[in-house]
Design a protein that fits this description.
- By secondary structure, the protein is mainly alpha-helical.
- It is 58% helix and 3% strand.
- A two-stranded antiparallel ribbon has the order 1-2.
Length: 122
């Protein structure tokens, strides 16, 4: 999938599988954090074409990522979901709403007064 930040050939397929897994309600909650973390790493790799294809795969699970932010289950999983959603520029307004509404579910550095997603160019 990736070596350090260099994406390898199976990265896009792996991103698609991880995104699909995140939409499955039968995936155990304890695995969600790791799945979101892997997807986030795949979407931010250094090979632009592969990373863009991974972001396209992540769009398929964006509602699961928002659900993770809103759930309040795990702050670190919510942080990874938030980071991943910042890679989708068309989500800026919705993500800003979630950032304000569910601020207590996010780590302090992602609170609007510390990182205003609506004012940051991404």
């Amino acid at each position: 999938m990736y070596v350090q930040s260099n994406l390898m050939m199976p990265a896009v397929a792996a991103a698609s599988m991880v995104a699909a897994a995140l939409t499955d309600p039968l995936i155990p909650l304890m695995w969600r954090r790791s799945l979101i973390q892997v997807l986030s790493a795949l979407c931010s790799g250094e090979q632009d074409a592969a990373a863009q294809a991974c972001r396209e795969a992540a769009r398929g699970c964006k509602w699961s990522l928002y659900e993770e932010i809103g759930s309040g289950r795990m702050v670190d999983a919510a942080a990874y979901a938030f980071e991943l959603l910042t890679a989708l520029p068309e989500e800026k307004e919705r993500l800003g709403f979630f950032q304000e509404t569910f601020r207590l579910n996010l780590p302090q550095d992602l609170h609007p007064e510390n990182f205003d997603v609506r004012r940051t160019d991404w």
